[in-house]
Every structure is written in structure tokens, then in C-alpha cells.
Amino acid sequence: MSIDKAIQNAAASVEMEGYVIDEQCKNWCHQFLNSEMSMEEYISLVKQQAGVMA
Q1: What gap in Å lies between CA 53 and CA 13, rounded to an integer?
Q2: Per the structure, how many domains does the chain have?
């Protein structure tokens, strides 16, 4: 399965639960899975976007 297809499937699963996954988060996920950013960077960006400070 390609990275793009995996991200689409994961986003669809989360969206079925009522959450919204925006394109920016999908892009960050793609960058992380392509080793273009670290897990720490990815988590930090997603937490900032969600307004989580801890």
C-alpha cells in the first residue's frame, strides 16, 4: 500500500468517528512517513494546531 493510500484510509477512518483531518495534517503525516521530519516535529505541529500546550 502506498503512503498516500494509507493516509487516505487512516483519515477516512478517523473522519467516520466525527473528526476532521485537514490537508495540512495530511501533508505533515506524509512528510513524517517519508522521513522528511521527525516524530517529535510532527507531534509538536499537530499539538500546536489542536491548541494543546502540554
Answers
A1: 26
A2: 1
